[in-house]
Amino acid sequence: MRKLLFNLHLYLALGAGAFIVVLGITGAIMAFEPEIDHLLHSKLSYVMPQPHKLSLAEIEAAVHKAYPGERIFGYLLSTSPDISCAVSLRGRQVYVDQYTGAILGERPSGMDFLAYVHQTHLRLAIRRPSDPGKKIMSWAGMVLLILVLSGLYLWWPVKRVSIRGSAATRRFWFDLHNSVGIFSMVFLLLLTLTGVMIGFEETAVPLMYRVTGSQPSEQPRKPPPPLPDAKPILADKAIAIARAAIPGAEPFQINVPGPAEPYFVRSRFPEDLTPAGRSRVIIDPYSGKVLFAEGSRTAPTGARMVIQNRAIHTGDIFGMPSKTVMSLASLAIVAQVLTGLVMWWKRRQKRI
Asked: Scanning 7, 56, 69, 325, which has the fewest C-beta atoms within 10 Å of its C-beta?
């Protein structure tokens, strides 16, 4: 059994190692995706907090003054007093100081460095209808789970946690491989289990609902067509309705709907640290009626399991401390592949 598992561990690592390294490097970066984005675009992102924020109508006026005739598609509201507001125009985002109305600059809406890292982690940045990249990365995650469990089995008889010898010896790399693996074992298991559940969400999500005996929330129908003389409510009014619909959740994103579209507002509770938020409200843009409201605190149990699974995987669950731990665990994955590769190479050279 031990020899069989050793060979399985070795050849799976050699076969999927490149994809696992990609998962580890991109995952380590993604743990700090918002923070890195703000640093890379500091002149657009950071503002000086002041006592009074402008309304969305005032921000809209400032944007239309700088970009006359441009249609606004949505707003990304400030998530922190020192972070700016972003306004979506066609093909770009404009950043606005929400205290003064000053236009800080703009960025194209297409793929940037962090978006490319994100898509590489999910699907090797391959966008095809059949999503082959996602299938590859999902199975690489499954292979990683097998490697973690088989590695624990192989480590158990020796229980080696000290590093001896010099970097020129196979013993040094063997000890380093064992030590990194066992000290990061718990976090590697969390990363791989949650990642596999995300990768195979078509199976995992229905399973979560079955296990908890819950059902997904019924999605709303489209709002009825407006009367000929109806006027849409303003975005500020939609934000106020969203706050009332899910008390305690702060809206951070809102679209500007077209004639047949509703307002879609994303919100987050103080404990919901994921950048995307997990609470949402859909509002009729003419009547102001709430068509759908689901908060992360009151969502069906299956949905809350999905939310927690993602928050654990990304490290968002406890904020900066857990993000740091999960980023380091992602780098530990890379270290395990590289030390294993060195051990294999030294063993092969010795045989030659």
From this structure: 69
108 φ, ψ (degrees, to nearest 5):
-65, 150
Query: pLDDT by residue (tens digit) across 15-40?
Result: 999 999 999 999 999 999 999 999 99
Domain range summary for the chain, segments of one domain joined by +:
2-35+125-196+314-351, 235-299
Q: What is the DSSP letter of 83?
A: B
Each residue of 227-249: pLDDT tens digit?
A: 788 889 999 999 999 999 999 99
Cα 54 from Cα 64, distance rounded (Å): 15
Distance in angstroms (rounded) separating the CA atoms of residues 107 and 282: 28
- R_g over Cα of the chain: 24
The CATH architecture of the domain made up of 235-299 is: 2-Layer Sandwich (3.30)
Tokens of 140: 């690489």
Task: Scan for tokens 């675009």, then name that residue.
Answer: 41
Residue 256 CB-density burial (10 A; 0-12 exposed, 13-18 middle, 19+ buried): buried
pTM score of the predicted model: 0.92
